[in-house]
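Long-time lurker, first post. I've been practising inverse folding by hand and with some scripts of my own, and I keep getting stuck on stretches where the structure tokens seem ambiguous. Below is the full token string for one chain I'm working on. Before anyone asks, I'm not after the true native sequence, just a reasonable design that respects the backbone. If someone could post their per-position residues I'd love to compare against what I wrote down in my notebook.
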């Protein structure tokens, strides 16, 4: 599962765009879900994205409620040192592993929900 990292819709970089170390500011609440609209124009083409900000926990709880355990979680950034996104994650990448409550990992045949639950 890969999504745009929730921090992206929670705030924005403030200050001079030429300053790659400018602060990232969250003006409202990161934890409060909300709808948003972003419009971008590049090379004469304008695109409008409609989205809904949700905190990281909303995604992990949805996976847990559906019977998944997160095996691995990554937060890739921009590798370019000249970009401000090198300090803030761009995406949230989770490798969910399906579990059944009585048999453990699907296809593994061992363990159980109680063995892997927090």
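-- Answer (accepted) --
I ran through it position by position. Result:
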């Amino acid at each position: 599962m890969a999504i745009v990292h929730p921090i992206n819709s929670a705030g924005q970089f403030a200050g001079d765009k030429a300053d790659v170390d400018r602060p990232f500011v969250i003006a409202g609440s990161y934890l409060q879900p909300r709808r948003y609209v972003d419009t971008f124009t590049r090379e004469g083409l304008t695109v409008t994205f409609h989205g809904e900000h949700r905190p990281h926990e909303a995604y992990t709880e949805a996976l847990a409620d559906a019977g998944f355990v997160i095996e691995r979680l990554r937060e890739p950034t921009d590798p370019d040192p000249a970009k401000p996104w090198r300090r803030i994650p761009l995406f949230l990448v989770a490798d969910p592993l399906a579990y059944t409550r009585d048999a453990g990992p699907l296809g593994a045949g061992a363990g159980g929900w109680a063995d892997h639950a927090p």
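A couple of notes from the structure itself: The chain has one domain: 2-116. DSSP finds three helices and eight strands in the chain. Happy to go over any region you disagree with.
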